[in-house]
Amino acid sequence: MPYTPEELKRLVDATCGNELERFAVLDEEDLRYLRRMVEGTVVVSRGAQQNALTLLGRAGDREADSLIINRLADYDERERINAADVLGRLATRDSIAAVADMINDPSPDVRRFAISALGRAGGDLARERLTQAATEESVSFVRRKAEQVLQELGER
Amino acid sequence: MAAVSVRVMAGKLGRTGPISVRRDVFGVYGTNARIRSLKAQFNLIENVPFVRVALVTIRPQNSLDGQYVNLQRDVDNANDIWQAESNVWLYCTGSVVDNSGILGMNAVLDQPSCPLGVQGSPTAEETNLFNLGRNLGADLVGYFIAGSTNPGLGGCSAYPAGQRGFWVGFNADQNMFAHEITHVVGLNAHTGEDPDIADNDQDNLMWPTPGAITNQPADLENVQTNRIRNDPGIETA
């Protein structure tokens, strides 16, 4: 474990995004500790929980997908945006399906970020939902985002 | 001090035409009750190096909300720290509000990472955001937004190549603006990443959680102030 629990707690408490760039190497013990922060068995602030979530996404910790999916109903709009981004990075079958469902979130901004996350993840389901959003989305800036992401996917 | 005119002093900052003492001499664009001495400001203009910064507040599309309410508090706090610690001052060249909807309905920026300095592969939203405010007379632009993808963050200083800037979240601690601008000007890293600063120096402005800085006002060490003073954006009038 490259970090002690105290170091990890202090680092995820950061409010300047640059600090998260320090977490280049996280071993399994670190990831397990970050998961415990997200699930609440290690008590940290709500902001630090979101930093832990972000780090799990960057680390590609596929074991975190169900942990996050099970908490989506408790997350507010900003937290769902983060969750969409993280789940898209994990790119498991379940996480992509969860992001695909977020295309129907009541918040247009969550839908916007879900579209970005699907674009990063790619794959058949992502293309299908992006096509749906590009034609059926009622909010213009979200629809434009879907059109733009679809175009970028087509260029890859 | 010999008699000097406001117009002459504003001219030293590149201001011509109708002059506003508040905006063109002091660089004040918001509300933060404090006594401001014209004599002291003239002394700064004539004798102390400075950095120009422009400010942009991002609001949702068609929003009638104005600029960020704590904008001047944050700029004054940064100026206090910089003047006390590094003998450099901040000159705000303008402040505008954008309500074109470039960051959706909640002004949240799509920003997956926050490296120190240049953002290697900026998202389309980062590129669009950092294009704003480039006509306000400063090389450096600070953006007040709702935040980025991760709601745990209150600021970030990563910027697309050639567009120096940083963002600060609405309702972030007053040290966040000073912290982020000190990342950009002088490329100062966090305490734990800077080999010249003690890892546990929580009094330092570059502590990674600016709201938790102890013994305020925040400190800067000589090595950090030298980086600020040697930044290419530093000017003298």
Q: What is the rounded Rg of chain A?
A: 16 Å
Based on Cα principal axes, name the global outline of chain A: elongated
Count every helix of chain A, treating DSSP H or I runs of 4 or more residues as helices: 9
Low-confidence stretches of chain A: none
Q: Output mean pLDDT of chain B.
A: 95
Tell me the total number of β-strands of chain A: 0
Low-confidence stretches of chain B: none
Strand residues, percent of chain B: 15-25%
Shape of chain B: globular
Question: Any idea what the radius of gyration of chain B is?
Answer: 17 Å
> In which range does the helix fraction of chain B lie?
25-40%
Order of helices and strands of chain B: HHHEHEEEHEEEEEHH
* Largest sheet entry of chain A: none
Count every helix of chain B, treating DSSP H or I runs of 4 or more residues as helices. Answer: 7
Largest interface: A-B, 36 and 42 residues
| Arithmetic mean pLDDT of chain A | 93
Structural class of chain B: alpha/beta
Strand percentage of chain A lies at under 5%
Summarize the structure.
By secondary structure, chain A is mainly alpha-helical. Chain A has helices spanning 5-12, 28-39, 46-58, 65-69, 77-90, 93-101, 108-121, 124-136, 140-155. Chain A is built from nine helices and no strands.
